[in-house]
Amino acid sequence: MTALDIEPTQIEQPAAPVATPEFEASNIRQNRRRGLLIALPAYTYLILFFAIPLFIVVLYSFGTRNRFRGTDLANWNLESYRALGDDIVRTVLVRSVTLALITTVICLLVAYPLAYYISTRPPVVRNLMLVLVMIPFWTNFLVRNYAWYVILGTDGPLSRVTETVGIGETRLLFTQTAVVLGLVYGFLPFMVLPLYASIERIDGRLLEASRDLYANGLQSFRKVLLPLSMPGVVAGSILVFIPSLGAYVTPEILGGAKTTLLGSYIVTQFLTASNFPLGAALSTVLMAIMLIATMVYFRKGGRTL
Amino acid sequence: MSNITEPRGATKFLLRANAGLVYAFFYVPIVVLVVFSFSDNRNVGVWGGFTFDWYRDLADSEPTKDALWASVQIAAVSTVVSVVLGTMAALALERFTFRGKKVFDALLYLPVIIPDVTMAVMMLVFFSQAANFFGFSKGFTTVTLSHIAFSISFVSIVVRARLAGTDDTLEEAALDLGATRWQAFRHVTLPVIMPGVVGGGLLALTLSLDDVVITQFVTGSGWTTLPLYVFGLIRRGVTPIINAVSVVMLVASMALVAFSLLAQRIRSHDPV
User: Fold this and answer.
1) pLDDT digits (tens, 9 = 90+) for A182-230
2) How is chain B split into domains, by residue range?
3) Annotation: CATH topology of B61-268
4) How far is B174 from chain A (nearest CA, A)?
5) Are residues A58 and A285 in contact, defined by beta-carbon separation less than 8 angstroms?
6) How far apart are CA A248 and CA B234, in angstroms?
7) Which of A110, A128, A142 to mutate to test binding with chain B, by most B CBs within 10 Å of its CB?
8) Average model confidence (pLDDT) for chain B?
9) Could you say which residues from 93 to 132 on chain B have a Cβ atom under 8 Å away from some Cβ of chain A?
10) What pLDDT score was predicted for residue B264?
11) ipTM for the predicted complex
């Protein structure tokens, strides 16, 4: 007789509850209470240190700047939102959206073929290639932008290379090109990873079938590959466009006086100009764009971002 | 697993060329930065012979050491707290249903997608109001509280991904065999989700060590973190010592990634 062959009667059985409907219901109730209890610390934290601050910012955007560089919250009004139409603010907004769009398109054009190429590789190579995309994503953002400062500087390595080749020295630092370059460098992994995730899921036989049915490469890409990978295209674009729009570090380091973007402009409103209501209104707009973009994405059937 | 076959001819060549260029684009700047950190020239981008001077200056620099110490303290506390809260949030969302779950889920997603600047503004305005209320002084408390606020979400996403990949029958089995809820969590659930918890923790650590914008808005005197200190140096005028600090930060980030990948690899071969 082995240890496993003990007679069932020998074990002290706790009175097993009978699965009556009442028991089931109380069990469910108990589980709900337990779930809420486990969620409660993080829930409370996020309400206190995220939801309330968010609400206060929206509140501030309806306030008025007073003579003491403070903000009056009484007599709420839409003045700050009206100020969004001012020339300076409009210039910054248009410039930010343009540069963020250019950044997104460049990332998309570069990342799509890469993501596709990665998904055709054998698993070992594929994992290595993915890790090599993720490492820059994990390394310090400030340092990565600074690297471009070193490269693009006057007499810097890039200038040396172009001089040697005979194009003459390059003066890219403190230009919009430098900012776009820095943004692409910073956010490219955000585009590659979701694109890869959605291309990898595609059944390769569909592509083969389209070719068997006499589609040429371009047709097979446009009618099969691209539509099937659309969730990745949208997710990647949101993940690149939104941080580009709110970028602050990159334009501060690589941009010059004429490259103030939305992020830097908001920072100035708070840290130098003390125009909290305008800064709050701009932040609210930025947040609204973000919310609309993600909601559209989730509505269209996207699951993870 | 994908079974997309590699195209032939010109497309194949273009795809390879593009991949090669992208990886060069990713890594050449890093290599350039490392090389120039050893350059004996006051101009940060000009080669002037090999030297260790900038690293020696760095080791002697009191403000750099203070900034590093501030960063480490803030990152340590914010990581521990956000790992605990984030893991609990992941468990609640993945294993239970409760009232307000959908709102909680959405609230947990927001800090991930919200731009840094917006979050920074939120915390600044909140703490300036809360100062009257709780008597927060700007510094360690405000920076750490802000870092936790964005880290919880990242931890919970990583842990949830891990939880979603494991079924809850193991926990049920443990409960049926007379384990208490805590024992089932401690001896069954936790070992299974450990790679997620470690991964999430390292992500939280990295995010805290990297943050510039939010920290700049909520910090006070004496609590300048390392990236904030470097950012200030860059804006005041670049000196080669920044190259050296940058390389040290780069090596630290890479060590963290390597550690994280290693931890996930070892753990995922566990028999569980």
Assistant:
1) 999 999 999 999 999 889 888 888 888 888 888 887 888 888 888 889 8
2) 61-268
3) MetI-like fold (1.10.3720)
4) 15
5) no
6) 14
7) A142
8) 87
9) 93, 95-101, 104, 107-118, 120-126, 129
10) 66
11) 0.89
Res A213: pLDDT: 87
Percent helix / strand / coil, chain B, rounded to 5: 80, 0, 20
Number of domains in chain A: 1
Residue B28: its pLDDT value, please? 94
Domain contains A95: yes
Instruction: Tell me the three state secondary structure of residue A72.
Output: strand
Residue B137 tokens, joined: 């002084």
DSSP B168: T
User: Hey, how many other C-beta atoms are within 10 angstroms of the C-beta on A61?
Assistant: 23
Torsion of CA A203, A206, A207, A212, to 10 degrees: 150
Residue A3 has pLDDT above 70, yes or no: no
Residues of A in contact with B249 (CB under 8 A): 140, 142-143
Secondary structure of residue A67 in the 3-state scheme: coil
Q: What CA–CA distances, in Å, run from A189 to A179, A183, B109?
A: 17, 11, 20
Q: What is the CATH number of the domain that holds A186?
A: 1.10.3720.10
**Looking at the predicted structure, is the pLDDT value of residue B266 above 60?**
no
A73-111 pLDDT tens trace: 777 888 889 988 889 899 999 999 999 999 999 999 999
Closest CA of chain A from B272, distance in Å = 22
CA distance B265 to B39: 38
Quick one: pLDDT at residue A192? 95
B98 to A46: CB separation less than 8 angstroms, yes or no: no
Q: What is the DSSP letter of A36?
A: H
What tokens does B30 get? 């890093």
- Contact status, residue A274 vs residue A55, Cβ threshold 8 Å: no
Q: Residue A97 burial (CB < 10 Å; 0-12/13-18/19+)? A: middle
pTM of the entire predicted model: 0.87
Mind spelling out the 3-state secondary structure of B39-107?
ECCCCCCCCCCECCHHHHHHHHCHHHHHHHHHHHHHHHHHHHHHHHHHHHHHHHHHHCCCCCHHHHHHH
pLDDT classification of B269: cutoffs 50, 70, 90: very low
With contacts defined as CB-CB under 8 Å, which chain A residues touch B254? 135, 138-139
Select from B89, B146, B230 the Cβ nearest to the Cβ of A142: B230
Question: Would the CB atoms of A188 and B26 count as touching at under 8 Å?
Answer: yes
pLDDT tens readout for residues B25-75: 999 999 999 999 998 888 877 888 888 888 998 888 899 999 999 999 999
Please report whether residue A151 resides in a domain: yes
Residue range of the domain that includes A132: 85-299
